[in-house]
Amino acid sequence: MPSVIVLDTLSQEGLDLLDAAPGITYEVRTGLKGDDLRNALAEFDGAICRSGVKITPESLEGNRKLKAIVRAGVGTDNINSAAATRAGVVVMNTPAGNTLSTAEHAVTLMLALSRNVAPAYQGLIEGRWDRAKYMGAQVAGKTLGVVGLGRIGLAVVKRAQALEMRVLGYDPFMSKEKAKELGIEWYEKVDDMLPHVDYLSVHTPLTEETRNLIDIPQLDRLKPGVRLINAARGGIYNEAALVEGLKSGKIGGVALDVYAEEPCTNSPLFGMPGVLCTPHLGASTEEAQTQVAVEAVQLLTDFLSTGQIKNAVNIASLDAKMLEQLRGYLDVAFRLGKLAAGLIPSGLKACKLTYRGEIAGRDTKVLTAAFSAGLLQGAMADDVNLVNASLLLEERGIKLSSEARTDMGAFRSAMSFEIEGADGQKHKATGTVFGQSMPRLVSLDGYRLEAYLDGCLLVFTHKDVPGIIGGVGMAFGEHSVNIGQMAVGRAGDVPGGEAVGILNLDCEPPVAALEAVRKLAAISSAKVIHLPSAGELPAWLQG
Ligand SMILES: NC(=O)C1=CN([C@@H]2O[C@H](COP(=O)(O)OP(=O)(O)OC[C@H]3O[C@@H](n4cnc5c(N)ncnc54)[C@H](O)[C@@H]3O)[C@@H](O)[C@H]2O)C=CC1
Ligand SMILES: O=C(O)C(=O)COP(=O)(O)O
């Protein structure tokens, strides 16, 4: 029965949904870190968190059980995504649930900062009636610069326009035309926008490009008295530069909801005149929390029960419909990967995949990941799945390329591999699905055949002369190895040439039986390759 750990405070509606999820158990354990966190994560199949817990590479060390982490919110920067990918753990988020609440918080900070709401109330608490001291600024008619025109940025733009502000914007992924359509004056460079704004609000993730977006050098470019707001991520404004700018009078006000280090209870900014701070409250409304919690639980329970992947940040999405459509081919891709690994068990150098026909028009990336998982599974101590297969392959220096051709070959859909070993050995094979879920090998090393892609295979090359099948059958019969299925393929229609044969054996053949087969005069090679049995799906494809 899949189990879930809830690592940060989650709204009751989310917990109720977990309670009601059939076949899923859960525990709430908040405030975990270090060894406690690592040990806890190793006990569960799925985890849900907010921004509180920090999931580091150490938190995932040795974890063989966890399959997914869902962030009930937007930013996944508290989860080490590279480590999660390495461990084969899907990381998903709920991108839209807290958009409006966070935008409202940014606007709240802008207005409250402009009208000195916090210090004026503090004055009242302390018995002062400071009307003259707290002269404010009206926002109508002022210019707001927005950096990051995504979900929250655009919601802020809309609200600022309703407040009759002029809005300038910068986002490398927003076109000038689209910005114009939205009533935003578009800037190609953020630095060019800075001298024109009375207010600046940032709504980007923290990246190498956005870190220290406002630092000491930028202070000179800012309009004197500018008010800066950050309800996105700490570090976008350099906190020391903010202190500097406030002290010099260059900056008129700073409102922060987020900090370079969180939790942050001690900052030189706290208590400075013109500063308004909240403890990461952007998404803290009943509405936002209900929505992100419900969405997070749905994402995780769908994933754990059907394999559906949505809003993942470290793997392509795989929705229920696509999963259903691709399940047969994901299975073939995985089996072909295992076949390839059996044909060249060590020293694989390069691999080329070709998708042909209808399947070429679908998400072939996920099929490539399934093939890679098959290729590596068994060779690796780590569990290999769709999330980490491509990375593990790359780490091993195996070159993988793929091509998709929508023109149909002999089959409506087919997938082929060509592999090359370090010793120059080459193999190629094509697989397809008969019906909905019958994986078949339809060519091997240029020989056409029709073989079952399951169970224990004996792959042998031989001269296409009479008596081969009888000889192999005798050798196995003497060792009580039953042959379940058999397929032979030859290059052309003329007998006497080279041919390939595939037997599906009902059990592992003893060494002596294999030796007997290899001794047959017309047989040039014979090897055993293990594939999953008929109908057996890898864990990540079950549902
Ligand atoms: N304070 C809080 O409680 C909350 C904070 N956030 C934070 O707000 C931020 C924005 O969230 P969303 O709008 O939902 O994300 P989003 O992905 O919809 O938008 C981000 C935008 O930033 C843009 N961008 C990326 N790099 C940029 C750069 N170098 N310069 C300018 N723009 C750049 C992207 O093109 C995108 O349009 C995230 O960092 C998120 O973690 C989100 C929710 C709550
Ligand atoms: O969604 C985000 O990115 C947030 O920053 C909200 O964080 P929280 O869920 O309130 O810890």
Automatic annotation (TrEMBL):
EC identifiers of the protein: 1.1.1.95
Any GO molecular function: phosphoglycerate dehydrogenase activity
Positions of the ACT domain: 457-536
Keyword Oxidoreductase in annotation: yes
GO biological process: one example: L-serine biosynthetic process
Keywords assigned: Amino-acid biosynthesis, NAD, Oxidoreductase, Serine biosynthesis
Ligase is among the record's keywords: no
Annotated pathway: Amino-acid biosynthesis; L-serine biosynthesis; L-serine from 3-phospho-D-glycerate: step 1/3
Catalysed reactions, as listed in the record: (R)-2-hydroxyglutarate + NAD(+) = 2-oxoglutarate + NADH + H(+); (2R)-3-phosphoglycerate + NAD(+) = 3-phosphooxypyruvate + NADH + H(+)
General function of this protein: Catalyzes the reversible oxidation of 3-phospho-D-glycerate to 3-phosphonooxypyruvate, the first step of the phosphorylated L-serine biosynthesis pathway. Also catalyzes the reversible oxidation of 2-hydroxyglutarate to 2-oxoglutarate.
Similarity-based family: Belongs to the D-isomer specific 2-hydroxyacid dehydrogenase family.
PANTHER family, sorted: D-ISOMER SPECIFIC 2-HYDROXYACID DEHYDROGENASE FAMILY PROTEIN (AFU_ORTHOLOGUE AFUA_6G10090)
NCBIfam families registered for this protein in UniProt: PGDH
Protein name according to UniProt: D-3-phosphoglycerate dehydrogenase
Upper lineage: Bacteria, Pseudomonadati, Planctomycetota, Planctomycetia, Pirellulales
